User: Which sequence fits this backbone?
């Protein structure tokens, strides 16, 4: 746990004074792999129940687990991406408990010797602030199956498709102090996992699930008793659950009560956390090393090779974008948050003005994508086309204003900007003769206004500009128009 | 002894090769013996049709001059702990009622690939927990041997009691067993046959119902050391489906056995001279030493100082692993289900009805030693001592090539004896558990009869993956002992 100075802005006002909230997160991230952690069964989401189950997953007699090397590789990559200690020897343990969706009666997990030790993650906070949060550990474990209680009035159905799928449990230090930081942690972690290709981070499909540990204390004082809110399935709900839970705890303490260490559930509908019905039996998981699996030993060269092959991650990429492309820290941060966006940007800006490209991407493309509910990978405008558009602006083929219309059409039709411009004759007019002719025509039509202008009504300048633009369909180069018009009116 | 079921594997292979008889005849002879001695209760399931069909296929292959496997046409019994595709597999337990695996254990599959014939599934202590075959849900197995002038029914030992009886009673030419604390060697000693527990990792555990995963190992039970070598050669081998199996080539064991023991250094551990060791056992042990010496071996006294802890350590580690391994028998997916008011109630009803007393006892011991607050004092400590026991052997094997001990502290006892006293029962494993804890290969070879005419065995323990030396020394004992006694009436 880091020493984190108390920030007044984070404190919650109670009846007896201010309270500090202490937050730690446990994320279960489903490993991207074709087959399960200890069996060859498939892992695809959304398959018919019990169609992706091997005899090992179903806990049949005499079946033995065999480590899937891909899952190990993914966990090590993730550890490297979190700047974490890679443990060259780790041990798989059995966590014993009975449940219908846990066929073997134990979950294979890692208890005292996880594959990844301490690491760090940098939170990107509002106003360009950054803060480091500690990672306690990352370990590999099997997912359980799914109990379906709503298929029959008296029976529970069990779907074992998920049973045995590899999860990385990533545990943070209790280094966060408000719900915004918790949300930033999840966004950053998800971003890193996606960059690494080790977890798709889809919380709505359950491939990333979050448990939140919440406690409150007097600022800088003794740590309070924590409650764990289980399985919150969106970043928004994580923030809401923290807000609710912190206030609940403060209220309990201020009314003379004590916080009981317990597991709570976030009720999405009511917007409250509530105590999980305490099971009749207290769980004693009786962890012990799984005798079916030897301790996992990693090869130093293999780890080094993985490290060398890691993709550029969001933090170094943002630094490079500011340095190489002269982008603001904020813009670079927006562009690197998703790997796909960063890739799109890099492709689009090739040979163009990088800042102009960034502006178009962030303000125009994001705007339209948001409105259409699409992601960058579904963008109707390709990176090449956006780059081409920026090029057309840069070389004065079209004005920025015309570019917006062209862009709207690109988004609509997916056509190349050059084609649209040619088709509609939108090329900017830069020929002085033709500009002069347009100006002369407007001035001739509005001799009265010219006279008013000349008698001192400067504001009419804009009127003339507008008239010329209107008459030419906006195609006249604005700078040249200004220059020629001024010369004529003042001449 | 012109009956085919009395043949050794080596002799039977010879007879088949020279077309003196067919695999069908050989198999039929075994099936008839099984039928004749059904009262011994050696088999849980007899697979007559399958056996005859497989034997016929072997005969056809031979007639057509096709390539023959190392055990082609040899009828075997399979301990009911090995999952056999489409054939009821019970582990001697009620809880596996009606369980017909859709898969074949690697070891049995290896045997079928070599052309062997399955006679049926052999009775055993429930989940291999026992030293008398008295804990089987399918009833006790009777040892074909009787004390001289006494008709008391005796145990065949356990847990591979059905295997031992089937081989000793000439129902099968050989059988598979599994050994977690002595479950091959003790019944082999009690029935006058040879039983080998290979090095941990030598045979795949895939498809064998697990008792204690870090100790369980499959091995052959045969009438001669040579047959044991032939069987092991087929059963052994690396299996990528078992992460604890070891990727080493399988030597030609049969070739190794006749090498003799000249110059071989044989260790005799002083700690095995227990207080109150029966004088007959002590005498047999001395005899064994003398036999090896006569054949040119060099005898050395060695020390295995942590031996006295082996039994308590075993009875912590094995139940701990078993308590977890047996959690899957919950009535949800296969086997017995006793309905209940709730999920927990169903678990409790099913497991209470499905598991026998000894299994329940060990599940409770195992749960206890792993529980919070006791783990360090029991399980962790036991694991530390286990490491010391292995170190004892590692040190000893710097000076000697093989270790000679008795196989059991007594000969076979009566079916009604020792059942009320689990600790007395556990003491049967006193000479054998150390070998499992250290993961080493051990063989029991019949060496003589006690004063009441019951067989006794000597055990040879070798270095990890040095089954060849163990078999070679075993063959030397076998040669000297010239054990030809047979249970009366068989």
Assistant:
């Amino acid at each position: 746990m880091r020493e984190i100075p108390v920030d007044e802005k984070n404190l919650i006002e109670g009846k007896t004074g201010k309270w500090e909230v202490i937050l730690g997160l446990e994320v279960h991230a489903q490993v991207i792999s074709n087959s399960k952690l200890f069996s060859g069964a498939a892992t695809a989401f959304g398959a018919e129940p019990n169609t992706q189950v091997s005899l090992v997953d179903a806990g049949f007699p005499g079946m033995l687990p065999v480590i899937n090397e891909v899952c190990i590789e993914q966990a090590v990559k993730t550890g490297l991406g979190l700047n974490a200690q890679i443990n060259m020897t780790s041990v798989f343990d059995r966590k014993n408990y009975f449940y219908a969706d846990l066929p073997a009666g134990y979950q294979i997990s890692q208890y005292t010797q996880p594959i990844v030790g301490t690491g760090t993650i940098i939170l990107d906070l509002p106003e360009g602030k950054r803060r480091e949060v500690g990672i306690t550990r990352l370990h590999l474990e099997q997912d359980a199956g799914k109990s379906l209680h709503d298929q029959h009035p008296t029976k529970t159905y069990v779907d074992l498709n998920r049973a045995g799928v590899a999860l990385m449990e990533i545990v943070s230090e209790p280094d966060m102090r408000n719900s915004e930081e918790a949300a930033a942690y999840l966004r950053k972690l998800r971003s890193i996992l996606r960059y690494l290709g080790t977890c798709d981070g889809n919380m709505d499909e359950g491939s990333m699930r979050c448990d939140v540990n919440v406690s409150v204390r007097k600022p800088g004082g003794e740590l309070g008793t924590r409650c764990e809110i289980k399985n919150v399935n969106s970043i928004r709900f994580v923030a809401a659950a923290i807000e609710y839970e912190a206030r609940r705890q403060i209220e309990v303490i201020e009314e003379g009560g004590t916080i009981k260490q317990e597991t709570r559930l976030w009720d999405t509908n009511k917007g409250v956390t509530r105590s999980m019905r305490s099971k009749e039996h207290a769980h004693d998981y009786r962890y012990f090393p799984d005798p079916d699996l030897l301790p996992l030993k990693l090869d130093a060269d293999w780890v080094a090779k993985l490290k060398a092959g890691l993709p550029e991650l969001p933090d170094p990429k943002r630094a490079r974008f500011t340095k190489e492309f002269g982008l603001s820290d904020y813009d670079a941060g927006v562009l690197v948050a998703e790997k796909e966006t960063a890739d799109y940007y890099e492709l689009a800006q090739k040979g163009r003005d990088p800042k102009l490209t960034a502006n178009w991407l962030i303000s125009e493309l994001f705007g339209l994508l948001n409105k259409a509910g699409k992601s960058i990978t579904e963008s109707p405008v390709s990176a090449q086309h956006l780059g081409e558009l920026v090029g057309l602006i840069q070389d004065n083929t079209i004005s920025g204003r015309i570019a917006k219309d062209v862009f709207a059409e690109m988004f609509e039709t997916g056509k190349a900007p050059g084609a649209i411009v040619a088709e509609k004759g939108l090329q900017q007019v830069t020929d002085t003769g033709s500009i002069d002719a347009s100006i002369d025509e407007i001035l001739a039509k509005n001799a009265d206004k010219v006279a008013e202008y000349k008698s001192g009504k400067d504001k009419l300048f804009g009127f003339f500009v507008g008239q010329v633009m209107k008459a030419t369909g906006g195609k006249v180069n604005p700078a040249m128009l200004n220059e020629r018009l001024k010369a004529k009116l003042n001449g | 002894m012109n009956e085919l079921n009395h043949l050794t594997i080596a002799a039977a292979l010879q007879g088949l090769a020279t077309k003196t008889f067919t695999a069908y005849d050989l198999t039929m002879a075994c099936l008839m013996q099984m039928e004749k001695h059904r009262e011994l209760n050696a088999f849980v399931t007899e697979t007559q049709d399958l056996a005859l069909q497989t034997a016929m296929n072997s005969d056809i292959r031979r007639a057509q001059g096709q390539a023959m496997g190392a055990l082609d046409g040899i009828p075997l019994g399979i301990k009911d702990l090995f999952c056999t595709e489409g054939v009821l597999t019970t582990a001697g337990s009620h809880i596996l009622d009606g369980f017909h695996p859709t898969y074949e254990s690697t070891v049995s599959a290896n045997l079928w690939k070599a052309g062997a014939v399955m006679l049926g599934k052999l009775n055993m202590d429930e989940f291999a927990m026992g030293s008398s075959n008295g804990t089987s849900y399918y009833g006790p197995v009777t040892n074909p041997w009787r004390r001289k002038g006494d008709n008391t029914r005796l145990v065949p030992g356990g847990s591979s009691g059905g295997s031992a009886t089937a081989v000793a009673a000439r129902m099968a030419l050989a059988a598979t067993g599994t050994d977690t604390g002595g479950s091959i060697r003790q019944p082999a000693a009690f029935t006058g046959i040879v039983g080998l527990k290979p090095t941990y990792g030598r045979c795949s555990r895939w498809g064998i119902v697990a008792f204690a995963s870090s100790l369980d190992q499959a091995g052959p039970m045969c009438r001669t050391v040579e047959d044991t070598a032939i069987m092991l050669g087929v059963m052994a081998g690396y299996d990528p489906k078992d992460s604890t199996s070891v990727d080493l080539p399988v030597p030609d064991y049969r070739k190794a056995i006749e090498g003799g023991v000249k110059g071989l250094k044989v260790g005799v551990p002083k700690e095995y001279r227990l207080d109150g060791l029966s004088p007959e056992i002590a005498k047999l042990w001395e005899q064994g030493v003398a036999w090896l010496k006569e054949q040119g071996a060099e005898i050395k006294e060695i020390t295995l100082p942590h031996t006295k802890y082996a039994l308590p350590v075993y009875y912590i580690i094995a139940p701990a692993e078993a308590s977890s391994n047996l959690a899957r028998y919950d009535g949800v997916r296969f086997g017995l289900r006793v309905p209940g008011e709730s999920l927990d109630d169903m678990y409790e009803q099913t497991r209470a009805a499905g598991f026998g007393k000894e299994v329940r006892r060990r599940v409770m011991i195992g749960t206890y030693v792993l529980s919070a607050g006791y783990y360090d004092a029991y399980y962790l400590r036991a694991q530390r001592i286990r490491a010391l026991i292995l170190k004892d052997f590692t040190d000893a094997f710097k000076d000697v090539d093989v270790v000679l001990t008795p196989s059991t502290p007594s000969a076979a006892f009566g079916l009604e004896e020792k059942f009320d006293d689990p600790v007395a029962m556990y003491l049967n494993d006193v000479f054998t558990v150390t070998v499992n804890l250290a993961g080493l290969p051990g063989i029991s070879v019949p060496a003589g009869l006690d004063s009441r005419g019951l067989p006794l065995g000597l055990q040879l323990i070798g270095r990890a993956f040095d089954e060849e030396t163990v078999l070679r020394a075993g063959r030397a004992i076998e040669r000297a002992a010239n054990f030809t006694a047979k249970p009366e009436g068989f």
The mean pLDDT of chain A is 93. Residues 8-306 of chain A form one domain. DSSP finds 15 helices and 16 strands in chain A. The two ends of chain A are 74 Å apart (CA to CA).
